[in-house]
Specification:
Blueprint lengths: L2 E8 L2 E10 L2 E7 L6 E6 L8 E3 L2 E5 L2 E2 L6 E6 L3 E6 L1
Antiparallel strand pairs: 1-2, 2-3, 4-9, 5-6, 6-7, 8-9
């Protein structure tokens, strides 16, 4: 499988996510309702030195937050995924 997407309407608004795998990159899009918080886990997929970007700006690199992006509250990494807390 190289892509997937889902969308659901909740009492707080629409929650949606999609992903696409291309060669050596994974693109993830997430939508959450206004005034909500979410945890996004991006799989490491066995790749070393994962970099996470938000609209071209580097957000997470080498196991730590590398930049500030509005709406991203925190980020961390373990052996399986990069975890972003957003809201």
């Amino acid at each position: 499988m190289t892509w997937a997407r889902a969308r659901i309407k909740t009492v707080r608004g629409t929650v949606a996510s999609s992903w696409r795998l291309r060669d050596d990159s994974l693109s993830v899009d997430v939508e959450i309702p206004v005034n909500s918080r979410a945890t996004i886990r991006i799989p490491m997929m066995g790749w070393p030195n994962v970099t996470v970007c938000e609209r071209g700006a580097v957000l997470f690199r080498n196991g730590e937050i590398a930049g500030t992006v509005t709406g991203v509250l925190d980020a961390s990494e373990n052996a399986e995924h990069v975890e972003l807390r957003v809201g």
